[in-house]
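It is worth pausing here to work through a concrete case rather than discussing structure prediction in the abstract. The textbook approach is simple: state the sequence, then state the predicted structure, then interpret. We follow exactly that order.
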Amino acid sequence: MIYLELFWTFFRIGLFTFGGGYAMLPLIQSEVLAHGWMSLEDIVNFVAVSESTPGPFAVNIATYVGRITAGVGGAACATLGVVLPSFAVILIVAKFYGKFRNSRAVEGAMSGLRPAVVGLIAAALLSIGREVFAVPPGASWAQAGVSAGIFIAIAVLAFQKKHPVLLIGLSAVAGVAAGYALGL
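Step two, the predicted structure:
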């Protein structure tokens, strides 16, 4: 039953991934590709959409994968699956954190988790970056140049602390303009 499979898959992703949506991305990518629910190109495209829509990244992508795979019921199951572990864990942590916040074991665990989360995010960045900047068969080098140009321009603006909504909007406009200019 696809609903149970979506729920269980995203429940495991939510349960065993620390660090938020971006840290979940390698596991989401792996699971979605392994189940054949979407192609890597579809995942990359939805990462862009998910980043530019309101709400938590992991919830957005789980909802999208569930909807594409099994309609509205699939979206509900995948979303519930990815949210439920975090909801339960945060309730437990909130109850006990005050007692253990100064514990050396808790501080040590957090010190160990931070670099692991950064590593997971870096792995997702490299994996998706490889797909974004790869020149597909039949595509021109101009397309790759446009992608690289948009990336560099947005990176420069991001380091200048421009508002994320502005960056997303400019990226979309540049992508549409380039698509028309290159005849895509």
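Step three, interpretation. The two ends are 39 Å apart (CA to CA). The CA atoms of residues 107 and 139 lie 50 Å apart.
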